[in-house]
């Protein structure tokens, strides 16, 4: 397989897809001032090389899905097998290997309107090679979903981003998930750019109905999109999970401050003693040290910081392709 390198047009394309994951290539091409087929070829190449995937996922606050961060410790020789098993599940994302491979962390989405913790925990506690399991409920996601990880979303001008941003008017009342939504969401979690024709065939509904429902899901902000890429393509080689214990009254202030940093790919308020969780991406280990000590450590209200290096992935967000 050819090594992947990104030029300016590739970076603009990835930024454009973060602004609108389902933007037509013709629209992106018009904003970037290139031919439609040039954009389509670039995306096809990056996708074939595994350098980019566009993923659709529900906004839990709209759809009622609960999100939990699960952290488990395994026997050293079991982590990769456990991680691979977790990665195959449709209800998990961000299955990361931590601390040299002895720990795993993953995000688990439970069914809508479920007040219970993830059923997955019961199975994990009965797995002989899993030493310990803990779970924290996501209370509020402070991430900027339009920008995502900001180092990847810096190639377009403000005017270009504005031209690509979907315009659905003001806030719209949410009418709840339908049977069609429950069929569409798993397909979009694998490939957020799947055509309406392919989606219609997969879910057994007409293309016109699928198209209208997708528009409604986006208009109500129930469906979000993210671009999955490897930070190393942008020159960022060091990643870690960060758990912060923050004074309760300072949680919104700290989380919002972090959400604007180029080093942050995800940040949320959580249950538990460590009540803010963040995913940190830095250029190298020295940059990570400077960020943790100079930026995070100086934020008012931060009482304790635990950082754990990410040493590998079983899954970023999407179900791994076979």
From TrEMBL:
<dbReference type="Pfam" id="PF01037">
    <property type="entry name" value="AsnC_trans_reg"/>
</dbReference>
<dbReference type="InterPro" id="IPR036388">
    <property type="entry name" value="WH-like_DNA-bd_sf"/>
</dbReference>
<dbReference type="InterPro" id="IPR011008">
    <property type="entry name" value="Dimeric_a/b-barrel"/>
</dbReference>
<protein>
    <submittedName>
        <fullName>DNA-binding Lrp family transcriptional regulator</fullName>
    </submittedName>
</protein>
<feature type="domain" description="HTH asnC-type">
    <location>
        <begin position="177"/>
        <end position="237"/>
    </location>
</feature>
<dbReference type="InterPro" id="IPR019887">
    <property type="entry name" value="Tscrpt_reg_AsnC/Lrp_C"/>
</dbReference>
<dbReference type="InterPro" id="IPR036390">
    <property type="entry name" value="WH_DNA-bd_sf"/>
</dbReference>
<keyword id="KW-0805">Transcription regulation</keyword>
<dbReference type="Pfam" id="PF13404">
    <property type="entry name" value="HTH_AsnC-type"/>
</dbReference>
<feature type="domain" description="HTH asnC-type">
    <location>
        <begin position="6"/>
        <end position="58"/>
    </location>
</feature>
<dbReference type="InterPro" id="IPR000485">
    <property type="entry name" value="AsnC-type_HTH_dom"/>
</dbReference>
<dbReference type="GO" id="GO:0005829">
    <property type="term" value="C:cytosol"/>
</dbReference>
<keyword id="KW-0804">Transcription</keyword>
<dbReference type="GO" id="GO:0043565">
    <property type="term" value="F:sequence-specific DNA binding"/>
</dbReference>
<dbReference type="GO" id="GO:0043200">
    <property type="term" value="P:response to amino acid"/>
</dbReference>
<dbReference type="InterPro" id="IPR019888">
    <property type="entry name" value="Tscrpt_reg_AsnC-like"/>
</dbReference>
<keyword id="KW-0238">DNA-binding</keyword>
């Amino acid at each position: 397989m050819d090594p992947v390198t990104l030029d300016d047009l590739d970076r603009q394309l990835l930024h454009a897809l973060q602004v609108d994951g389902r933007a037509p290539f013709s629209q992106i091409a018009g904003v970037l001032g290139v031919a439609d087929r040039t954009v389509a070829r670039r995306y096809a190449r990056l996708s074939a090389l595994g350098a980019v995937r566009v993923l659709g996922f529900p906004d839990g606050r709209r759809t009622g899905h609960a999100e939990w961060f699960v952290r488990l410790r395994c026997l050293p020789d079991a982590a990769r097998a456990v991680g691979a098993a977790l990665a195959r599940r449709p209800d998990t994302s961000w299955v990361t290997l931590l601390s040299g491979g002895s720990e795993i962390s993953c995000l688990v989405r439970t069914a809508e309107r479920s007040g219970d913790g993830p059923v997955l925990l019961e199975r994990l506690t009965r797995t002989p090679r899993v030493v310990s399991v803990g779970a924290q409920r996501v209370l509020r996601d402070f991430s900027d979903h339009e920008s995502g990880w900001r180092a990847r979303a810096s190639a377009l001008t403000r005017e270009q981003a504005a031209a690509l941003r979907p315009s659905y008017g003001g806030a719209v009342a949410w009418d709840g998930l339908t049977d069609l939504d429950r069929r569409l969401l798993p397909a979009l979690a694998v490939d957020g750019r799947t055509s309406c024709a392919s989606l219609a065939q997969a879910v057994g509904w007409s293309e016109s109905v699928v198209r209208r429902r997708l528009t409604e899901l986006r208009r109500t902000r129930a469906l979000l999109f993210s671009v999955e890429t490897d930070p190393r393509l942008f020159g960022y080689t060091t990643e870690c999970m960060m758990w912060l214990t923050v004074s309760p009254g300072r949680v919104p202030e700290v989380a919002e401050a972090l959400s604007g940093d180029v080093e942050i790919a995800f940040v949320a308020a959580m249950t538990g003693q460590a009540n803010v969780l963040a995913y940190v991406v830095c250029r190298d280990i020295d940059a990570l040290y400077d960020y943790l000590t100079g930026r995070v450590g100086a934020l008012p209200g931060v009482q304790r910081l635990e950082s754990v290096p990410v040493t590998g992935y079983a899954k970023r967000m999407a179900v791994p392709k076979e």
